[in-house]
Amino acid sequence: MEERFIHVRRTARYHLLGRLEAAPEFWIVLHGYGQLARYFLNAFEGLEEGRVIVAPEGLSRFYLDTDHSRVGATWMTREDRLHEIDDQISYLDTLVADLAKTAMPGAAINVLGFSQGVATATRWAIQGRTSLNKLVLWAGSVPPELDRDALLALRHTNIDLVLGDMDEYADASVLETIARRFESAGVPHRKHLFSGAHRLEPVLLGRLMNGE
Question: What is the pTM of this model?
């Protein structure tokens, strides 16, 4: 058996809050495994004043239940992972370039990754063509292949690491491990351990997006 690859065109979906033309900054928010962008964006309602919030959706969708009534999306799986990583980075760079056509000139670009979206956000921040102002990594892991030299690319990005103290998928040691990796690379960052589970905590979310 011989394995081959071709490039194809496909349609990607995203949802947004706010007026792109009037916003001095925009946030690209990346959902977690099994979520859809429009539902993920609900957590950001009320935070769009003075900014636009854009939720792109992972390119791979699947049924979440045996009745085929609920659908979720994923950014990638381990199958053919290198091509999937390249595709997601190209997708996000293309999205920002398209948004820039109608955005305010010089609008700051910020990114929040939640859960599986943390790995996607970190890879994009390092390997993509988009210059990011802020990077919020919430309740997820930084990919292991991003070594100290790779992380150095983030030394001029404002980084916040966030985790709930009752997160079902990680404990505080995960937050400390990620922080040590950034410290080893000399990358400034802030840590936030809030009281809660695997979710976006609205008060802290608002503070971080407002630069507090």
Answer: 0.95
Residue 35 forms part of a structural domain = yes
Give how many domains the chain has, as a whole number.
1
Separation CA 182–CA 195 (nearest Å): 23
**CATH number, domain at 34?**
3.40.50.1820
Largest CA distance in the chain: 56
**Strands 25-30 and 108-114: what pairing?**
parallel
How many Cα atoms are found within 13 Å in the side-chain-facing hemisphere of 123?
24
pLDDT for 170-187, tens place per residue? 888 999 999 999 999 999
The 10s digit of each residue's pLDDT in 116-135 is 999 999 999 999 999 999 99
Q: Domain range spanning residue 122?
A: 14-59+71-152
Q: Virtual CA dihedral for 37, 143, 150, 84, nearest 10 degrees?
A: -60
Query: Collapsing DSSP states into helix, strand and coil, what is residue 96?
Result: helix
